[in-house]
């Protein structure tokens, strides 16, 4: 329901009140609320773009750790539980960031900002999602997946959302820990242990996030500055941020090539990721002399999405290719 009031229904001939199908539709349009609108608003609170990107890496981590037989029921449990836990974290983040979101252009229409979803209802929704997700992980996966899921949730909501994002230029570093948790959870869900493959998978996603989100901080620089969020481009300037983006891109590419030397994939994986990695580094170098940093940083971010998608596909397929 919309928080705004609506007119009372018309009285019927027998002295009772009713709303027939036509009146219900009119009332719905008048208040801007329908069942479909409500579902879409609650769905949007889970940040679908962020959600599905993270679940993709969780699936990739599981398949990366399953070079032979794949336990599909366990795979579904890991993905379902992870989806719900991440959705819970995203919803509560909307509640925490209402003051920031109301200032920034890209977020000021979120349902928790406009009032279409009250903060109390969003918190209840988040708790239900979180409990459902953790229940699935506890019932059908292993304790490592549960620990990674809980740790990633706390890192995102508390360490990042409540603290570092608002207080430190290093907020992105802290947020990258939670961002790398899904692939680690997927990996240990299949492997049942922490090993070199788990460390490589975690580090790849950790370092991927730095150039990706530092790029956002450049083309959203003015919005972050207005909202008072101490992202690197605001605190240290565009030039320094560009240099950091290139440095982290190089580190990511180096780490992304480790699976083959450690025996987890074949040369096909290395060839694909190596070529794409060189392209990302070349684009990063262009940024050092970019006359329009905002335009360049958007290209850099879009390329990061290509890299994440390719990485997820190649991690899943790499152990099965030459």
Automatic annotation (TrEMBL):
Transmembrane segment boundaries: 49-66, 72-96, 117-137, 143-163, 170-190, 196-216, 245-262, 268-288, 300-318
Reaction catalyzed: heme b + (2E,6E)-farnesyl diphosphate + H2O = Fe(II)-heme o + diphosphate
Query: Per the UniProt entry, what species is this protein from, by scientific name?
Result: Arthrobacter silviterrae
Entry's NCBIfam families? cyoE_ctaB, PRK04375.1-1
Keyword hit for Transferase: yes
Task: Classify the main location.
Answer: membrane
The gene name reads cyoE
Q: What does this protein do?
A: Converts heme B (protoheme IX) to heme O by substitution of the vinyl group on carbon 2 of heme B porphyrin ring with a hydroxyethyl farnesyl side group.
> How does the record say this protein sits in the membrane?
Multi-pass membrane protein
Q: Biased-composition ranges for Pro residues?
A: 1-11
Query: What CDD domains does the record point to?
Result: PT_UbiA_Cox10
Protein name, per record: Protoheme IX farnesyltransferase
């Amino acid at each position: 329901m919309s928080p705004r009031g609506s007119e009372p229904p018309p009285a019927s001939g027998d002295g009772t009140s009713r709303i027939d199908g036509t009146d219900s539709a009119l009332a719905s349009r008048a208040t801007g609320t329908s069942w479909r609108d409500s579902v879409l608003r609650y769905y949007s609170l889970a940040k679908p773009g962020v959600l599905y990107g993270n679940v993709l890496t969780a699936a990739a981590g599981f398949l990366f750790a399953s070079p032979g037989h794949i336990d599909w029921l366990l795979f579904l449990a890991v993905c379902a539980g992870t989806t719900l836990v991440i959705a819970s974290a995203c919803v509560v983040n909307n509640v925490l960031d209402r003051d920031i979101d109301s200032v920034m252009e890209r977020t000021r229409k979120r349902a928790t900002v406009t009032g279409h979803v009250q903060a109390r209802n969003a918190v209840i929704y988040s708790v239900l999602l979180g409990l459902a997700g953790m229940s699935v992980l506890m019932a059908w996966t292993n304790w490592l997946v549960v620990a990674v899921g809980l740790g990633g949730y706390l890192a995102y909501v508390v360490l990042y959302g409540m603290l570092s994002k608002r207080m430190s230029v290093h907020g992105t570093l802290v947020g990258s820990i939670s961002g790398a948790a899904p692939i680690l959870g997927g990996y240990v869900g299949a492997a049942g242990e922490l090993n070199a493959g788990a460390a490589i998978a975690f580090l790849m996603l950790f370092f991927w996030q730095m150039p990706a989100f530092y790029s956002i901080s450049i083309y959203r620089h003015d919005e972050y500055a207005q909202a008072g969020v101490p992202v690197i481009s605001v605190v240290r300037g565009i030039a320094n941020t560009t240099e950091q983006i290139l440095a982290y891109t190089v580190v990511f590419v180096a780490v992304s090539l480790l699976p083959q030397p450690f025996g987890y994939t074949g040369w096909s994986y290395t060839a694909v990721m190596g070529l794409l990695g060189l392209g990302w580094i070349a684009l990063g170098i262009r940024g050092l002399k970019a006359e329009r940093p905002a335009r360049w940083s958007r290209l850099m971010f879009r390329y990061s999405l290509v890299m994440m998608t390719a990485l997820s596909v190649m991690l899943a397929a790499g152990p099965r290719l030459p």
